[in-house]
């Protein structure tokens, strides 16, 4: 990475040196359950660590380079009068690519200090500062020339005009999230100062008796809440709630309809509709409000919407949003495979929302959806090279329907609308933060990722060390080392894929029963436990050197969709553990003739040299059309464009 705006580097260093003091931390309201932050979890996992390292060494630098090449940084300089020119780029939210990559770089700096990256980020923050107007306003295309929009679908206009499409508040939301991440990583307030100046402007502009409008594209709500949790300025939290309270309320303002989730008040919504990314970001914000205000109306709403998604609108890969048109949810049970959209950003947003739902309710069913999205619909969005991407993630490719953004049949190095690559930058380093959680007397183990951390049930430090080769193997060992003998409960998630359905509800059902159940031992001996909210709960006096052995049966399972999903009638998908499999033309020349029967069996082989190291399923049958090779869905299209299917014709139902 090169720091090419040398005229601003000295300014950035001055800003950092003057504002490096941390703000005072205070206790604030929050969820009853607390996640263990990603920077307090040290992972040594064979599955996730290489992917996070690729993100650090390839994806983040390549994405910053693309932002330089595409003029993303130039726009801040043009807005600030340091450079002459017109707006560069084709989207009104191009500023957010810079913010999201800074967020990812900040997360990376938290766990992997890097002086060069740190200095580069500071130089970019100085550039951002030049583009901010004196009162805190920051959306470069409107500052440069509000009479000319970079996108035909986003009408020009002065500040706050055409908020349905201007993305001014969306830009703010990603700025706020980046600023919170950067502050927590570095203790510097150079970006936080820019963000709070912008947030203070929003507080002065929006609200009852002021400009009674809402964002066209949600995320400012969660961004404001993150700023509130850092600064403890309640007006930020109140504004986030105001934006949600006002959305869909036709008695206050002219509403924009279901595409923006603006058709009825949010607490009356029961079905996921419209643009899937906007929706899931909004549902995450609603869940925050439910927790921070202890608001039952918000809790009831997100519960009903979640049930709708999981029972009627969730792809088996954890993806959401079935329609290319509007990047949107379809009708109930509208889950096509060839034309599935499943935007990478939507899968990421689905993780954000489901994690909040877990923190709110403490039930493992939300982590089941999170895990499914994580191991399938999220990481399918980036190639194993770390620098080629999917925007949509279909469940079938016939080599005729050009599914990827820009009409491509393969992964692309960047997009004019580059929200997905930059979202991967910020998401990947945060994965360790989804592994563990705690409340006063409980330690939750949600994901099975080889790692160490320290938790504090009842205020007593306890070091945890988890060893596993998940998702390829089901053996999990957890060393529990309290500072002193101490009673608390360890809650180990019992994955839904061990039961009759991959996730809660009847959208998908397994056709076969597991031959074995999970087993639990402590210090080599079977132990009594209870099952509660999807967790195996072991409550006891723990001592230094205690080890839990948790064995999950990793069997290949056949999945049937609800008959109301017309595209999957007469078809079966296959899974092993949390991983959804597909067949690809690179392995199966006669892919269109392949089928499954109830009697098809599988040979399981871990191939370290294939596609970054994956477990491959080889179907065994007498019928040649039932003999095939299946690979994990998330690695498809890494050997060039070719046909692919997740759902295969079935001879049994």
Could you explain the architecture of this structure?
This protein is an alpha+beta fold. The chain has helices at 6-18, 48-69, 72-79, 95-111, 115-130, 140-144, 163-166, 168-186, 190-205, 220-231, 234-246, 276-292, 296-313, 344-361, 364-378, 419-427; strands at residues 34-35, 41-43, 396-397, 436-439, 442-445, 451-455, 462-468, 475-482, 486-493, 508-510, 519-522, 525-526, 530-532, 535-542, 546-551, 556-561, 571-576, 579-584, 595-596, 601-607, 614-620, 629-632, 644-645, 648-650. The longest helix has 22 residues, at 48-69. The protein is globular. The termini are far apart.
Summarize the structure.
The chain has helices at 6-18, 48-69, 72-79, 95-111, 115-130, 140-144, 163-166, 168-186, 190-205, 220-231, 234-246, 276-292, 296-313, 344-361, 364-378, 419-427; strands at 34-35, 41-43, 396-397, 436-439, 442-445, 451-455, 462-468, 475-482, 486-493, 508-510, 519-522, 525-526, 530-532, 535-542, 546-551, 556-561, 571-576, 579-584, 595-596, 601-607, 614-620, 629-632, 644-645, 648-650.
- Level of helix content? 25-40%
Main sheet properties: 11 strands, mixed
Average pLDDT figure: 94
Give the C-alpha Rg. Answer: 24 Å
H/I helix tally = 16
User: End-to-end distance, in Å?
Assistant: 54 Å
In total, how many beta strands?
24
Roughly what fraction of the amino acids lie in strands? 15-25%
Shape: globular
Model regions low in confidence, pLDDT < 50 over at least 5 residues: 1-27
Category from helices, strands and their pairing = alpha+beta
């Amino acid at each position: 990475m090169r720091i090419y705006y040398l005229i601003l580097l000295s300014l950035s260093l001055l800003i950092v040196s003057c504002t490096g003091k941390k703000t005072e931390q205070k206790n604030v309201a929050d969820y009853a359950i607390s996640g263990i932050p990603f920077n307090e979890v040290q992972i040594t996992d064979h599955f996730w660590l290489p992917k996070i390292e690729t993100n650090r060494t390839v994806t983040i630098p390549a994405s910053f380079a693309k932002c330089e090449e595409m003029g993303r940084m130039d726009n801040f300089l043009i807005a600030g009068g340091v450079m002459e020119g017109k707006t560069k780029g084709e989207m009104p939210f191009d500023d957010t690519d810079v913010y999201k990559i800074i967020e990812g770089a900040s997360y990376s700096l938290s766990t992997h200090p890097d002086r060069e990256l740190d200095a580069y980020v500071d130089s970019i923050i100085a550039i951002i500062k030049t583009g901010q107007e004196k009162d805190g306003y920051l959306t470069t295309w409107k500052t440069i020339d509000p009479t000319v929009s970079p996108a035909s679908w986003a009408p020009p206009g002065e500040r706050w005009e055409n908020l349905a499409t201007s993305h001014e508040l969306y830009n703010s939301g990603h700025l706020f999230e980046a600023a919170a991440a950067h502050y927590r990583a570095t203790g510097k307030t150079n970006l936080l100062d820019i963000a709070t100046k912008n947030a203070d402007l929003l507080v002065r502009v929006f609200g009852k008796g002021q400009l009674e409008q809402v964002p066209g594209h949600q995320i400012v709500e969660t961004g404001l809440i993150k700023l509130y949790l850092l600064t403890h300025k309640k007006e930020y939290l109140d504004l986030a709630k105001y934006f949600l309270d006002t959305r869909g309320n036709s008695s206050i303002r002219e509403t924009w309809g279901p595409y923006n989730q603006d058709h009825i008040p949010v607490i009356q919504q029961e079905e996921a509709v419209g643009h899937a990314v906007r929706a899931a970001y909004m549902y995450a914000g609603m869940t925050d409000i439910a927790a921070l205000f202890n608001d039952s109306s918000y809790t009831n709403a997100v519960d009903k919407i979640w049930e709708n998604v999981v029972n009627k609108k969730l792809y088996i890969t954890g993806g959401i949003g079935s329609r290319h048109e509007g990047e949107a949810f379809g009708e109930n049970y509208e889950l096509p495979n060839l034309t599935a959209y499943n935007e990478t950003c939507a899968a990421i947003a689905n993780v954000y929302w489901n994690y909040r739902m877990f923190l709110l309710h403490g039930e493992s069913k939300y982590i089941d959806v999170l895990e499914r999205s994580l191991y399938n619909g999220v990481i399918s969005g980036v190639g194993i090279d770390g620098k080629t991407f999917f925007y949509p993630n279909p469940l079938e490719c016939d080599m005729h329907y050009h599914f990827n953004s820009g009409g491509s049949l393969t992964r692309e190095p960047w997009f004019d609308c580059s929200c997905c690559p930059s979202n991967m930058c910020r998401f990947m380093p945060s994965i360790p933060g989804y592994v563990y959680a705690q409340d006063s007397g409980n330690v939750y183990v949600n994901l099975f990722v080889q790692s160490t951390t320290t938790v504090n049930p009842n205020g007593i430090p306890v070091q945890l060390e988890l060893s596993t080769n998940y998702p390829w193997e089901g053996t999990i060992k957890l060393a529990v080392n309290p500072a002193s003998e101490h009673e608390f409960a360890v809650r180990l998630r019992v994955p839904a894929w061990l039961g009759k359905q991959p996730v809660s509800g009847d959208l998908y059902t397994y056709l076969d029963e597991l031959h074995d159940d999970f087993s639990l031992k402590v210090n080599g001996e079977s132990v009594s436990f209870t099952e509660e909210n999807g967790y195996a709960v072991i409550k006891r006096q723990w001592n230094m050197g205690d080890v839990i052995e948790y064995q999950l049966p990793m069997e290949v399972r056949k999945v049937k969709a609800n008959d109301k999903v017309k595209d999957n009638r007469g078809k079966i998908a296959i899974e092993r553990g949390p991983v959804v499999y597909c067949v690809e033309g690179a392995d199966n020349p006669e892919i269109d003739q392949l089928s499954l029967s109830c009697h098809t069996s599988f040979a399981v082989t871990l191939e370290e040299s294939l596609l970054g190291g994956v477990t491959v399923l080889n179907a065994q049958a007498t019928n040649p059309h039932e003999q095939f090779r299946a690979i994990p869905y998330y690695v498809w299209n890494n050997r060039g464009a070719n046909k692919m299917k997740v759902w295969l014709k079935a001879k049994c139902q």
